[in-house]
UniProtKB/TrEMBL annotation:
Domain Aminotransferase class I/classII large: 32-362
One annotated GO molecular function: transaminase activity
Domain of life: Bacteria
Needed co-factor(s): pyridoxal 5'-phosphate
Name of the protein in question: Pyridoxal phosphate-dependent aminotransferase
UniProt-listed InterPro entries: Aminotransferase_I/II_large, AspAT/PAT-like, PyrdxlP-dep_Trfase, PyrdxlP-dep_Trfase_major
Entry keywords, A to Z: Aminotransferase, Pyridoxal phosphate, Transferase
Family recorded in the similarity comment: Belongs to the class-I pyridoxal-phosphate-dependent aminotransferase family.
Amino acid sequence: MKLSDRINRSRPLATTAMHGRADALREAGEPVIDFSIAISHFPAPAAVREAIAHEAGRECILPYTDVGGAVDVRASLCAKLRAENGIEATPDEVVVTNGAKQALYEALFALTDPGDTVIVFRPHWPAYVTTAQLLGLRIVLADLPDSLTPEALDALGPARVLIVNNPHNPTGKVYTLEELGHLRDWAQRSSGHIVVDESYEHLIFNGNHTSLASLCDWRKLGVVTIFSASQSYAMMGWRVGFALAPRPLARAMHTLQGPITAAAPWLSQVAARAAFAGGRPGGMLEDYHARRDLVLDMLAPVPWITMAPPDSGPYLWGDIRALTSDTLGFAESLLEEEGVALMPGDALGVPGFIRIGYISDDIVTLREGVRRIVAYGEYLRAAARA
Ligand code: PMP
């Protein structure tokens, strides 16, 4: 079948592809341990379950809502923005979407034309690059600096859009106030837009998360902020998030969303309203912190992996260049030989590194998966010496 050039130029999203392979092996009866993505083992917050039970107890009339989300849902998201992020916004500047991915696609679609430049810091969440590819954008990958400076930003060159992920997947970097100030200044002196993905805003172990939009005139500078229920509220499958965008862009996102998905599903909007009002799963952050430390402790004595404790997020990002530079091959054979799925850094723009999502299984399985990674690395080292 002849498909479009546009789709033939595009690749499936690496994270979902790896997760799909792990799932297929599991279904075939293989005891696969899946660290390829972060699916929380926590249930949805109690406030969400209550809100859904209440909704289900009514007549179960699930309406088509306004494409950008029911007005009262958007109003409650504005209250969240005010209380938690220090941002004043009105409901017509909020678009409820089927997760951060849809918000990202719509924002990039509405801000760019094919061939426009988008800058992405690497390592990066694969969806930034895959989405930009789908839209035919020119992608400039820049190394994520430990500390962002005005010089580093100027060196990026002109761009239509700069994508910032704060807190950052996979390194856990939480941008400081000073760095956010540099980003604001960059937006002021360039004609580029900043799209900030704040999906991990509540998964912080060290430091404080600040929204760029709270520090600048985001309407005038054309700053877009994306939020998601998936990670901060352990609600991956609910497929709901939202974007805060200056009114003309919010309107454009409506235009795009209307014929594709229309509104996010009503039950997910109800769930989002309850979650974003402050209903996070109790004990989740402490649990993630303990798991993070457990894996770090297990890997500390391993000479071929270097891993800094991340300040946020559900991932560990490790440098295994002392073992191999072929991390794609490592991930492939680790899955085949040891039944452990993880993300090779290649998919995140930095070969030589691996990403471990550590929040999905019980602790015994987590330990076993890490044990298998170490054993496989040791086996490769012994084979190289022989
Ligand atoms: N942004 C980033 C950087 C992510 O890693 C994730 C989860 N993998 C998301 C957003 C969540 O996306 P969605 O809301 O579409 O589930």
